[in-house]
């Protein structure tokens, strides 16, 4: 017998006793469908399109979310209202490709696209995971209540274009300020 | 034998087979629940009441999988190997006496028969690892062979003490001789047999042939579906067999007050199975050299020492 044998037996018993004590410990498992843990407010889940305080669509169809999306899962088609305000004609997110990285939310200049604390969106086919605009657009303002993009950007009225008001700076021509 | 006798024999074989398979299935569920109990988890609790139908779900899943044979495998051996493992365990149960009159066969060399079958068991694992033709499987199979050889020696030697005390190789007579359970007379032999038994069934802390962390899944890396299920069944039947053998050889089998013999046998076996599960969740896997050290440098001399003491004391007692 080598010298370590007594301590080895003590250590063996220590291991056994430790696991045995855990029979009475609190379970770490959460029985999920019955018990739902509260999700943090910044949880990156299902993507929604929000409205501004006036109930108009915030989205101005700038394509930035579509451009920044690393998996190319956002597809939209811009169109214009009679008063010149842009909005997406179609807005489609393929949630079977979406990785919920939140880049679209960061890219959005009008805080329109937002990620919500909801992940329960299983479907039996890929097609059902492609959400159209009707499924994405919600009635509320989401995480940023009171924000209206046009309060900051201004709107053109008859006889006065954007930037022609007193104290306004004229808009940048984005075709000339490319790097 | 007459036709009725044949039919009765066949029916009893079928019944025992079915019962053993059922016990194996329940053990797979019980092990997961008990591991979960000792690890602050819940374990499978979805299929049926308390998750009791989990084995059914598992079996359905495994059976409905594709019977895949890797293109680089030795097809014939690969298919046969998983059958050997549960078969040897099932055959061994023929000689295990459950109660005073509950046994299928009373061989006069039952103990040798059991040892021989447990040696054959290694062929299933080793050939499975060899035929898979992958490095993980091969390493697992080789380890299995080395482990079996190292631990069969102390296992057999520990049993010689039991045979000396009872004067018989028949398991039924060994139990009948245990008015006082042999664990009292052979404490060292009991420990050696139990540890070797764990090593023989490839259970933690001796699951080197499987060794998930190092060898993916060891000898059954390339196995899936029903063939994998056979390996798994073999493992659980092996645990059941070792527990039953320890009960028969050291814990007095069916002997016990108040309750009927079968119940005592079942209770003792169950306690040993729980010990197997408990050890699995508590102890880390031995390193390969530690395994060999333990087998050759500690267990084998201890078994020989036990044999010597038993022989000397037995000699004096028999004289007196």
Task: Report what the structure shows.
The complex is a heterodimer of chains A (179) and B (320). With 179 residues, chain A is an alpha+beta fold. In chain A, the strands form two sheets. In chain A, strands 2-3-5 form a three-stranded antiparallel β-sheet. Chain A has a two-stranded antiparallel sheet with strand order 1-4. Chain A is 20% helix and 13% strand. Chain A starts with a helix and ends in a 26-residue tail after the last helix. Chain A contains five helices and five strands. With 320 residues, chain B is mainly α. Chain B has two domains: 1-64; 68-319, no CATH class. In chain B, 71% of the residues lie in helices and 0% in strands. Chain B contains twelve helices and no strands. The termini of chain B are far apart. The chains are: A alpha+beta (179), B mainly alpha (320).
Any descriptors?
heterodimer; A: 179 residues; alpha+beta; 5 helices; elongated; B: 320 residues; mainly alpha; 12 helices
Give the rounded overall mean pLDDT of chain A. Answer: 86
Order of helices and strands of chain A: HEHEEHEEHH
**Secondary structure category of chain B:** mainly alpha
Major sheet summary line of chain A: 3 strands, antiparallel
Please outline the helices and strands.
The complex is a heterodimer of chains A (179) and B (320).
Chain A: H1 5-21, E1 47-49, H2 64-68, E2 74-80, E3 86-94, H3 103-107, E4 113-115, E5 130-131, H4 133-136, H5 149-153
Antiparallel strand pairs in A: 1-4, 2-3, 3-5
Chain B: H1 3-38, H2 54-63, H3 75-92, H4 110-132, H5 135-166, H6 171-176, H7 182-185, H8 187-200, H9 212-215, H10 225-249, H11 261-282, H12 288-319
């Amino acid at each position: 017998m080598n010298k370590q044998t007594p301590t080895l037996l003590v250590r063996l018993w220590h291991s056994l006793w430790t696991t045995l004590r855990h029979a009475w410990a609190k379970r770490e498992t959460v029985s999920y469908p019955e018990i739902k843990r509260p999700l943090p407010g910044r949880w990156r889940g299902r993507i929604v399109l929000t409205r501004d305080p006036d109930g108009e669509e915030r989205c101005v169809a700038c394509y930035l979310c579509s451009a920044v999306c690393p998996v190319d899962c956002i597809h939209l088609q811009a169109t214009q209202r009679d008063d010149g305000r842009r909005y997406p004609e179609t807005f489609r997110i393929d949630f079977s490709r979406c990785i919920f990285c939140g880049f679209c939310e960061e890219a959005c200049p009008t805080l329109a696209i937002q990620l919500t604390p909801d992940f329960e969106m299983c479907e039996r086919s890929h097609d059902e995971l492609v959400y159209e605009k009707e499924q994405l657009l919600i009635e509320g303002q989401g995480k940023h209540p009171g924000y209206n993009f046009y309060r900051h950007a201004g709107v053109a009225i008859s006889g006065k274009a954007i930037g022609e008001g007193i104290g306004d700076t004229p808009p940048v021509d984005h075709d000339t300020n490319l790097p | 034998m007459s036709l009725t006798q044949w039919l009765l024999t066949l029916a009893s074989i079928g019944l025992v087979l079915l019962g053993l398979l059922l016990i194996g299935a329940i053990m797979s569920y019980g092990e997961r629940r008990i591991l979960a109990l000792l690890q602050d988890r819940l374990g499978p609790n979805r299929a049926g009441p308390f998750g009791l139908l989990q084995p059914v779900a598992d079996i359905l899943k495994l059976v409905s999988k594709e019977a895949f044979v890797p293109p680089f495998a030795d097809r014939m051996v690969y298919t046969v190997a998983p059958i050997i493992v549960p078969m040897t365990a099932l055959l061994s149960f023929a000689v295990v006496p459950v109660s005073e009159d509950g046994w299928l066969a009373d061989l006069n060399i039952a103990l040798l028969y059991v040892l021989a079958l447990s040696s054959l068991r290694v062929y299933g694992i080793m050939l499975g690892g060899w035929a898979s033709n992958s490095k993980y499987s091969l390493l697992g199979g080789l380890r299995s062979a080395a482990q079996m050889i190292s631990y069969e020696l102390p296992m057999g030697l520990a049993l010689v003490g039991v045979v000396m005390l009872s004067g018989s190789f028949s398991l039924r007579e060994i139990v009948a001789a245990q008015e006082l359970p042999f664990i009292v007379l052979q404490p060292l032999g009991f420990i050696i047999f139990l540890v070797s038994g764990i090593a023989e069934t490839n259970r933690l802390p001796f699951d080197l042939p499987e060794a998930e962390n190092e060898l993916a899944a060891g000898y059954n890396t390339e196995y899936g579906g029903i063939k994998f299920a056979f390996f798994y069944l073999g493992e659980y039947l092996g645990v059941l067999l070792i527990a039953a053998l320890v009960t028969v050889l050291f814990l007095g089998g069916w002997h016990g007050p108040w309750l009927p013999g079968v119940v005592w046998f079942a209770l003792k076996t169950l306690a040993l199975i729980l010990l197997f599960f408990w050890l699995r969740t508590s102890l880390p896997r031995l390193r390969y050299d530690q395994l060999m050290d333990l087998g050759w440098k500690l267990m084998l001399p201890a078994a020989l020492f036990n044999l010597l003491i038993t022989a000397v004391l037995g000699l004096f007692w028999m004289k007196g």
